[in-house]
């Protein structure tokens, strides 16, 4: 009998043993199933969010320069409710109108636009609107963020009065008509007329970028007038005169603002740095949660080892018969190793299938778009098999070392 025949026989014996105790086999595999499903799902969600964040930022002008305060604090540290709507953060050292003017006048900067937060209640046709921010900005914004207008026009240089451009979600929630051009809403007790509606923005969960679909854009001069010049800017967007001058312009902006503010309590980020800043946090979070989920794989391995030890104790007589008719220690070892490997591999494959099902459910019911990649599927399946091999070793060795005479006498 050759090695190929022996191996085939061991595999068949392992499969038969697993089938003979279906319920026990399922509970043995459960830890591995949960572990593999958790790891793949968590990593897929992390990858999906990173992809969405990247798409959101890359949708903007590729040469976009973002200036933002470096000092942020949680909402509990601030009483300004308007700021708290921005990704759950408040600004402790906001950018001012002087910073906006300085950036606009910096050498090699072709266009710039502030995003100034205007606090206060908004009242539309459907009552108070509280789902988004009111942002003061300038005519250059639509070009900087590479976003087109679906209806009407964007704010132009002549618009310094009470006009507004809405994100699509804001337009839908504030008014009872599909295209509310010419309709008005109240802000700070004044009427603002809708002159434009943006096309749908690319948005991403957990992104540091605000969701502009819910935003209301009004002229920055109007915000300054309503707030007596005290409204804070959470970002200033800028573009260099040419793509080749982007890094130079960013450096010039940093130098100009440092001189103006008396220190560098702000960040100046180019396109790639914007992506990196958002994704570093997501990478850390994904690794942390995936590490916690991977612990269940270890738990699953311990479960396999315990059940295999029980299986060895239950099958001592069978082991004695096999050894009496000529089975070697290595053959007994192989049989039990194959059983443990089959249990863990089957658990891994079931976990992979469940993760694809969960991925589909998440896509259909939420705004998240998980991204399952084949490398993580292969790694998770391979790890589940490795778990079976490692934790199946002790029971397999214990079985292979049984004395055939003692095993035959075992009751």
Brief sketch in words of this structure:
The protein is of the alpha+beta class and 411 residues long. It has 13 helices and 14 strands.
Description:
The chain has helices at 3-20, 22-59, 81-84, 97-105, 141-144, 168-174, 220-226, 246-261, 271-314, 316-324, 329-365, 374-400, 404-409; strands at 64-69, 72-73, 90-91, 109-117, 122-124, 127-129, 134-137, 149-152, 163-166, 184-187, 190-198, 216-219, 233-240, 266-269. It is of the alpha+beta class. The chain has 2 domains: 3-53 and 280-409, no CATH class; 63-271, no CATH class. The strands form 2 sheets. Strands 1, 4, 5, 6, 7, 8, 9, 10, 11, 12, 13 and 14 form a 12-stranded mixed β-sheet that branches. Helix 2 runs antiparallel to helix 9 and helix 9 runs parallel beside helix 12. The radius of gyration is 31 Å and the shape is elongated.
Shape: elongated
Percent of residues in beta strands? 15-25%
Overall pLDDT confidence: 77
Number of helices: 13
Domain tally: 2
- Detail the poorly predicted runs: 72-89, 204-208
Report the structural category: alpha+beta
Termini Cα gap: 32 Å
Strand count:
14
Q: What is the radius of gyration?
A: 31 Å
Topology:
Blueprint: H1 3-20, H2 22-59, E1 64-69, E2 72-73, H3 81-84, E3 90-91, H4 97-105, E4 109-117, E5 122-124, E6 127-129, E7 134-137, H5 141-144, E8 149-152, E9 163-166, H6 168-174, E10 184-187, E11 190-198, E12 216-219, H7 220-226, E13 233-240, H8 246-261, E14 266-269, H9 271-314, H10 316-324, H11 329-365, H12 374-400, H13 404-409
Helix pairs in contact: 1-11, 2-9, 2-11, 2-12, 4-8, 9-11, 9-12, 11-12
